[in-house]
User: Fold these one by one.
Assistant:
Number 1:
Amino acid sequence: MSEGMGRGRLEAFSDGVIAIIITIMVLELKVPHNADFAALKPVLPVFLSYVLSFIYVGIYWNNHHHMLNMTQHISGAVMWANLHLLFWLSLIPFTTAWMGENHFEAAPTALYGWVLLMAAIAYWLLERTIARMQGDDSPLAAAIGRDIKGKISPVLYAAGIASAWVEPRIAGAIYVLVALMWLIPDRRIERRLRH
Amino acid sequence: MSEGMGRGRLEAFSDGVIAIIITIMVLELKVPHNADFAALKPVLPVFLSYVLSFIYVGIYWNNHHHMLNMTQHISGAVMWANLHLLFWLSLIPFTTAWMGENHFEAAPTALYGWVLLMAAIAYWLLERTIARMQGDDSPLAAAIGRDIKGKISPVLYAAGIASAWVEPRIAGAIYVLVALMWLIPDRRIERRLRH
Amino acid sequence: MSEGMGRGRLEAFSDGVIAIIITIMVLELKVPHNADFAALKPVLPVFLSYVLSFIYVGIYWNNHHHMLNMTQHISGAVMWANLHLLFWLSLIPFTTAWMGENHFEAAPTALYGWVLLMAAIAYWLLERTIARMQGDDSPLAAAIGRDIKGKISPVLYAAGIASAWVEPRIAGAIYVLVALMWLIPDRRIERRLRH
Amino acid sequence: MSEGMGRGRLEAFSDGVIAIIITIMVLELKVPHNADFAALKPVLPVFLSYVLSFIYVGIYWNNHHHMLNMTQHISGAVMWANLHLLFWLSLIPFTTAWMGENHFEAAPTALYGWVLLMAAIAYWLLERTIARMQGDDSPLAAAIGRDIKGKISPVLYAAGIASAWVEPRIAGAIYVLVALMWLIPDRRIERRLRH
């Protein structure tokens, strides 16, 4: 738990955990016993929730990479904030399968959003922990200040969780919307980094 | 999502995902309850499809490595094109098990080819994305122009999918053929690279 | 089995194994068939034991990282002492699931503590093996001398195993206590390393 | 498939696959439904075969590391010889579980030895492929000439396979013997490498 830890091994470990999370989700696609396409029908909702979760985990991997690029040293607090984020991400395969196998019913759809919300909070905590270690004039602290997506996402997840009890399809649409929001490249940041 | 991302972590993450894909397929080889060799008989078609998929994933890992060797920087678009490829590869364990457990019947054999086709298209998209970033006079753009195997493969996969409905064994033979085509080393390229 | 092995690949391999251990535990969270929150009730004890084990594996990864930071070369003996540690850690998913699925009954709770005890002993053996290779005046040998947590933990695990037969909740409380003890950062060491 | 590939990514990929193989074996330790130690009894033979296979995979990881340390460049042939070795290693979780769940009966014990034999042959092929690339006066070619363990092991595996049909316990004893033979450090080589 020293300030002297480099970021290399933290990245490698996080990459390993995220790679496993994104891949073991596919194990929840249970192989049907029949050999016609009709047998795939019950797999379809699990597949759709797999696609959504694959994109979410991909977004987290991408953002995680960029955030760590802005730091050199890792304190014990950063390490545990990172493990805390990985913990919530590791629950995504479970909530994905529960939501998919129950055809996007209220409770599983709400829980799916809740784990996304907790992951977003964990990500924000990790970001704050790194920024605090670096001081208020660090580039990361400035980036957090401008991070509009990061501030809107938790609000949208909460809206998704609430609307799951009214109509799960609204919740699903909100989760897709947040994913799309993150998928669209942030031209301003890319330009800034190029200079 | 910056142009400033190095290729190291993209390679490490892709390696992790591909290593997991190639290994979890073996979990579909269900351990038989009896202790004689006759009990292995139902495992045999799953084993054969495992061998074929192992070779395919190995080919993708190999080609992926060489393609990334030709680039230094990774843009957000490249990162998502890469995740898109990993997505289709991650479905191979599912289609492998479905095809194997149903003894190469029409629908599973067609779906197996379809996932291979989508992976080939995703690979081509990734290649184009990197080449566009580098400009038309890049070594990668030149390599794509000469890439005959990459152009024939999708046509053969499509032929495999179509023939699965007539006689799945023809489809299987075509998939084996494409794998062999990629396994045979490309002496011309090796020679070129040595100079 | 040479003294000439660098520590990089040992770290990478250990990271891979630990990342898989920490992630496959989540596969024991069996997806319930019903879609209401009541269906999650039987998953809850498995979830709680998952949280505890996640923290334990995180602690081991963290400490493992710091210990290896104090060495440059790896002998054959170190490599096997490291594999021995990974072996006991690899049993944590099994004992976690057994304890969780049986609602913290005596035998599973005792076995859970026993695997923690064996992992602690394996960690101590690895530490001793590296220190012996480096000589008695090495920084690691000095660190072991001061390592109070490392000396108390096995005693507490043994107390946990014994008390599981009287009241498993006492054992559970002890395991949580040991985890908390390790989670609290060791300010003295961090300060020392900063200088 | 170029001679220009560095060995770093081959090592990283192999480490990933071997780390997954050594860890997913533990998933075959099926969690018993009862909470007393008697419920662990059927798990015991699976556990014992897990211990043996863990050691074997550890030995392969160790030897693989040392062999690759003696080479800098990787040809297409080396890459496929390496994937061929990983293929046979990937079957160890299956044969381990089949042997363990059937209490070391004849057929599973023979198949277990057969996969070990194929892995040994694949290892030898990989070694020869690297040595051929480097030329007959390479240090690796010299090391192969002196490699007595590598020459005895396949003979012992074959003896194990044959004796499994007479008395599986003899086969088991032979597999344990080969593992011990590899575990004992090779002082001569360590000394040579130190100079």
Number 2:
Amino acid sequence: MKFALSVLFFGVFMVAAHSIQAAEPTVSEATSECLECHTIVHPGIVESWQKSRHAKITPKQGMSVEGLARKVSSKTVPDVLQDTVVGCAECHALRPDAHADTFDHNGHDIHVVVSPNDCAVCHSTEAGQYEKNIMSHAYTNLNANPLFGKLEARIPGRAKLTDGKIAFEPPGDATRAESCYYCHGTKLKVAGSEVRDTELAGEMEFPIIEGWPNQGVGRVNLDGSRGSCSACHTRHTFAIEMARKPHTCKECHVGPDVPAFKVYSASKHGNIFSAMNKSWDFNAVPWTIGQDFTAPTCATCHVSLLVNTDGDVISERTHQMNNRLPWRIFGLVYATPHPLSPDTTIIRNKDGQPLPASLDGEFASEYLIDEKEMNKRRQAMQAACLNCHGSSWVNGQWKRFENTIRETNSDILTATIMMKDIWEKGLADFTINPFDEAIEKKWTDVWQLYANTTRFASAMGGGGDYGVYAGGRYQLTQALLEINEWRTVREKLNGASK
Amino acid sequence: MKFALSVLFFGVFMVAAHSIQAAEPTVSEATSECLECHTIVHPGIVESWQKSRHAKITPKQGMSVEGLARKVSSKTVPDVLQDTVVGCAECHALRPDAHADTFDHNGHDIHVVVSPNDCAVCHSTEAGQYEKNIMSHAYTNLNANPLFGKLEARIPGRAKLTDGKIAFEPPGDATRAESCYYCHGTKLKVAGSEVRDTELAGEMEFPIIEGWPNQGVGRVNLDGSRGSCSACHTRHTFAIEMARKPHTCKECHVGPDVPAFKVYSASKHGNIFSAMNKSWDFNAVPWTIGQDFTAPTCATCHVSLLVNTDGDVISERTHQMNNRLPWRIFGLVYATPHPLSPDTTIIRNKDGQPLPASLDGEFASEYLIDEKEMNKRRQAMQAACLNCHGSSWVNGQWKRFENTIRETNSDILTATIMMKDIWEKGLADFTINPFDEAIEKKWTDVWQLYANTTRFASAMGGGGDYGVYAGGRYQLTQALLEINEWRTVREKLNGASK
Amino acid sequence: MKFALSVLFFGVFMVAAHSIQAAEPTVSEATSECLECHTIVHPGIVESWQKSRHAKITPKQGMSVEGLARKVSSKTVPDVLQDTVVGCAECHALRPDAHADTFDHNGHDIHVVVSPNDCAVCHSTEAGQYEKNIMSHAYTNLNANPLFGKLEARIPGRAKLTDGKIAFEPPGDATRAESCYYCHGTKLKVAGSEVRDTELAGEMEFPIIEGWPNQGVGRVNLDGSRGSCSACHTRHTFAIEMARKPHTCKECHVGPDVPAFKVYSASKHGNIFSAMNKSWDFNAVPWTIGQDFTAPTCATCHVSLLVNTDGDVISERTHQMNNRLPWRIFGLVYATPHPLSPDTTIIRNKDGQPLPASLDGEFASEYLIDEKEMNKRRQAMQAACLNCHGSSWVNGQWKRFENTIRETNSDILTATIMMKDIWEKGLADFTINPFDEAIEKKWTDVWQLYANTTRFASAMGGGGDYGVYAGGRYQLTQALLEINEWRTVREKLNGASK
């Protein structure tokens, strides 16, 4: 059995080789202490972390990588962190003075909620980009916009039937946290502390955190920072593979208001992904078009650092995510050029409303990017397309997309003209809340569901059914007809009942 | 080419080793006879079976496994079955006297439909648990509930237009079998026999079985037992891998009335599954949290035997499936604590209706589990959560879930109060059928579609769009507005036309 | 390290063996020229092609395969193509005189759009079958049917609000190309040429092609042929694996009008695919039931060459795709036997309308296949089913399917009788456009969305929720109730306002 022995020897040899390559991961003393208990009480977390790159590589090793493959973007990392892998304590005991939820836990200053500012210690470039991402302001942009507050009251709000009428009160915190703010992010707040009986250490004191748990993209953290890196880089493996796959984006981009995942998965690109991705390399950095993958995922077009087979950079990595996007196709009420600032609460249309366009469709241009910037972003997006498609293909597709933006905006104007008539005739009330009557909801259907779905279908290369029967133009034009029919019948009925 | 020879030798050696390990699978004489023909006429079935554990292991081998890894739960298995693998004859010729469809087939007493009582010969614990599963009563609970019969008439029933009105007659058997009873299960009945010309043996006689084919979870079988193990353990591989993946549950839990799969696949857990499951071990028994998988599937939370990395049992295996569920969030009309008995036809609310709550929302508590049992089930569920989440996370999530149950129940009450007014004013008729008019269907939308979707989104950790725009609160509150508008307009119209 | 050397040697040996098998792929001189630049400007395309069988095998090698494994169906292939792999020039410079978009490109006559007639040089049988496929006529069948033109105007058409009424104008070309014609295919037309500045060669002239890009199944090409093989055989890998996976079909068969993919993925077959396909062989030709796969995909039932484990042919390969389909379940307005000719513009019902049935449900039988052909197609379909299901299963399932066709057609008749009354009473207008009013759209919902969804659920073996709550019978019967309610209220209202 000489051969069998060889196999055995070869196995041992490979383990050894692997160990050398990974350079004996060193876990800090503090993290070792954490692991002592948490391996027992939270084995799932510990197992996930052990599968992570964080558990295998020290920041110093990460910083020794030169060029495009480098993942630690910070030029300097505190010495104390450099020589151990990134474990429990390295994140949850980082910057203790900055976090309102820091508490004494077995002699360590621990905080529950790790924030982008913690991650920024090693990943400063990405954290800086993310601050410019409109998603980082998703809590405030919704919560501090009085008009959106009225919409929020109508949707997850508390419906009260009084004197034969339904009125809406704002939703409570628990409801908010699992409806709009599940994706937008909650505002966290320490509301005291409590003593809990623990399995291994008896009674221990922990902070009470309002708004917790939450991993929304615009979460307002206990150090004042915004966002949650684990929204996309799922705890505690933080695998780039997962962030690059479209299911991560699906968590918040699947409903009829923003059906990116559904459209993608029915597109040619999504088909190629579904059928072939098992042989792709989702961990390569940089990500080589054609070699590592043969069709884009969400991350490819919106986030990732892409190179061609010659190693030339096609797209720079971005966590701002809209710097390849000239248009904001999610209509409020109309599709517009992207806002200049991620803080959209400052926007006022010509009528003083906090919207990027007036209700008659005029853009609030001073708050939006200009044509030059739009062109720059279009080119940044198209740079990736052109690796697999000729210019006439890409230009033809883009013309259709901009045609669809114009046409859906035109349909929204038609709906809004009818609504203005309805409001002016007193058939519905605009002032108290323009969203809280049945006919007003039909109007929001037009711009928030059907126009958005139609545009997403267009943006991703055609989209087939999603542009027509699956919540697209079929439903859009029907809603126009129904609004008009309602208007006619109501006028008639009001006349008849006088 | 010494090396090449080694490879060849190694290959032979491995085949031999494999054979020794699997101990020369012995196929019974009866099954060999089956295979002679059926390998030719039904090669797909035979190939599937050959991939199964049943084709490789004898019951005796299965019974020799000690501890948590044991799959044969019966303490005794008839001697005649112990030493051959589980093939065609072992199941389809088992307990011939018990099955009404037993017929002579080439000298063997064969029955077409294998039932849970057949499976129970080796898997008695699971079969016993399943009898307590409300799913095993899914046929009777629907078919023998007179109120649900009225709902069934309205949905798949036969619509007849007479004198300008649409009335509904109960659906025929063919329609029933592929609408409600596709999932609930049909009632099988032998209706005689027929002679068919067969490819290999000329004319042969077979039983005619009404309600066949069907694999619904509450199928009433020809031995009087209830359910179909192959609903989840798909024939003829019966792979635990398949039962543990969420696509099995999707077969019946995907529509807006019970959108578990859709919500799951948009949840953080579903994202992790979609992106990473290719490296999970779906065959390990017991199933180790963190090691074999890094996020739960449906089976993880509701069925599987789970252990932590120390091998401690976190969750006992259950085929009752609701013993980790305090609440029944599928509203009839309201979400309530789970019924005490799997037979829900015995339930009467305070008004004598066969529903777990009255139409004004009062629970029929004597038929439902009490708070003590609810707490026990909550803890059984949370035991799994706590392996990857801290207490404050789990408790915070649970509070939101119970808030959502209260709030959706409150919205259903609002809808029902308006409907009562509508019924009392004679704008619609309650007595003949409370489900068969357009406005009544809007009311069923509220509790059967939108409230359910909102609760499923909450139950699975937030659910993003499914709690808001994708059939959740956005549609729920709109339905309230539309019911109220209908009520107002109809009263006006009735007044005007007098 | 004798063993390590052996491994090295073995590696070299395998590469050599592989090279011998693949016989040194020879790239033609013309293709080499293409690759010189396009490897730089379109690396994604080149990488995809390099993964293809086209890049590895010459037609001569393909033609040397005998029997069922043969993929080159043409008996003769021009000598000039036989000894090089199928690269850029082999397709894009083929038959230059036939293509209106042929242009001089660095001394070569190149056309942008490769057509089925190009592919037919090697794959003549498949191209010939595809000409008989109703899909190849998808452009004309929609575009040249005046009634469908009215439907198209209502859906993606331009809505204009004039004098309080909404009227629809036909959609523009850009909208058409990304709504109906995205799947149906556009009509391509050369509209001149343009000079573009290119990265590597400065200014170059290219044809301007209206309707480009498009890969719809009925695309009218610049050589007059119909269809686009890359609709399913995605460029430039053209992998049979991708065409055989259901995501390809999903590109056009996912919306509520034709929800094949959604129904499939919730079916038992789809569950098996989702859970187990990672271990299937999607490249084997012929495709062996049970061995290469254990449940059908779309291609299995509708396209592929299937054999059983004995190598007997179960189903012949077909690109006509409806020769295993007796019924056309996509209702226009009713489900009918399949049309005789792929050109459906010739069909006239008894009332002279271009529909396969009259509005009262009578089939236009002279344009449809007869019962004999229907039986032949049913048997061709069932031949595959019977490999994994007994006769009673298959027959039982089929009876339900035909029951569902009858019942949904009956429901459509009920809806249409009410609409006729509405049209006759002048509550809506039939003549100008029977699809452009709100109530008319509810009628199209019945036959185009809910009846279709119900039938697809039935056709694929039950379909659970899609036959009931997920756009099936629940919505179908509700639409009947709503149409009737609308009719009653409108009559009342008209009376009251007189």
Number 3:
Amino acid sequence: MIQVIKLADKFDRVTDLWSPKIVGRVDDYDVKIVKVEGEFVRHDHKDEDEFFYVLKGRFDLELDDGTVSLGPGEMAVVPRGVAHKPSATTETWLLVLESSKIKHTGDVMTDKTLARFEEI
Amino acid sequence: MIQVIKLADKFDRVTDLWSPKIVGRVDDYDVKIVKVEGEFVRHDHKDEDEFFYVLKGRFDLELDDGTVSLGPGEMAVVPRGVAHKPSATTETWLLVLESSKIKHTGDVMTDKTLARFEEI
């Protein structure tokens, strides 16, 4: 039987910030959830687009040509190669969809960079 | 600048049922929204997994081994090759993610089958 996943239950189990967890797979793509708050490292993904949908809070993406801000019920796709510095002033819950091949912070390595993504 | 899309605004423009509209692209995958109500045709997709997330209403998937029911905030992935008959007893809003190559009703052709998906 196919598993029905209540995202709020999964978020309840997430205790770390900026650490995407895999909740499903679609072919070679991952459906991830992530809790964010504060500032993250500016980075880009050379070969992968990245989809974000806000479930709770507010998610800001500082780009070369300005900042976009996503509230609950809003989505955006960051195209490959577009540098973005994510941040959130309050605890924010995101649904993310991206290739399973993607690296967390692109070619930038920081102390927040994950080598792999955990399933939850 | 990256476009921020409020899904509710897009749904307001959808007037037909069971007719997914493309709201974004992630590499070779489509992010779609679809309004559903009533019963749809049983079908499968031989080579593609299919992700569903319920924004409003309730979405039922009748499978060979039973029926799963998704409410708001719940998601499921229908794996490739798994026959499913979607239905909804009330107007239901879905976010869908799947390969751009996918055919609407797999190899089943009905009067509801779309040859291509419109962008909205």
